[in-house]
Design goal:
Elements lengths: L4 H7 L6 H13 L3 E2 H7 L5 H13 L3 E4 L7 E4 L13 E6 L5 E8 L17 E4 L2 H13 L1
Parallel strand pairs: 4-6
Antiparallel strand pairs: 1-3, 2-3, 4-5
Helix pairs in contact: 1-2
Bound molecules: zinc ion (3 copies).
The site of one zinc ion has 6 residues, from loops.
Length: about 150
Amino acid sequence: MKQTPTSILTNSNLRKTPIRLQVLQLLLREETALSSQQLESNLHKPDRITLYRTLRTFEQKGIVHQVVDGTNNPKYALCLNACNEHQHLDQHAHFHCVQCGKTICLTEVSQPSIHTPAGFVVQSSHLALQGFCPDCIFKGKKKKSTL
Ligand SMILES: [Zn+2]
Ligand SMILES: [Zn+2]
Ligand SMILES: [Zn+2]
């Protein structure tokens, strides 16, 4: 079933406030991870505190996950259907394109399991990849061929 902002909020028993609907619409449309600044600049009536609370609620409900992409700008992306308010299952790599600045969930690339020395308890780990996305490589090739 295709997800819509309304269906996501209904499934999580959340009230359909304008800001929640807008944030989900942006994340569904862009299909990339977005920083709170990127979200804020696309909102009709930006309100930083409400946006911050919205993202926190979404994270608690298993709707979005925080994305660490190796830049110093944390981002948010939509979760897989399997996430819920009890756990996040987004143990996948994130790819940051150094050319266009997009950050993409590589859901098919799972993080390798990491064995830490005795006495260390891992709470979170992030696999952040950086390089060029297919779009930018394609554009680069096209540019060369027209020269
Ligand atoms: Zn999740
Ligand atoms: Zn790119
Ligand atoms: Zn992700």
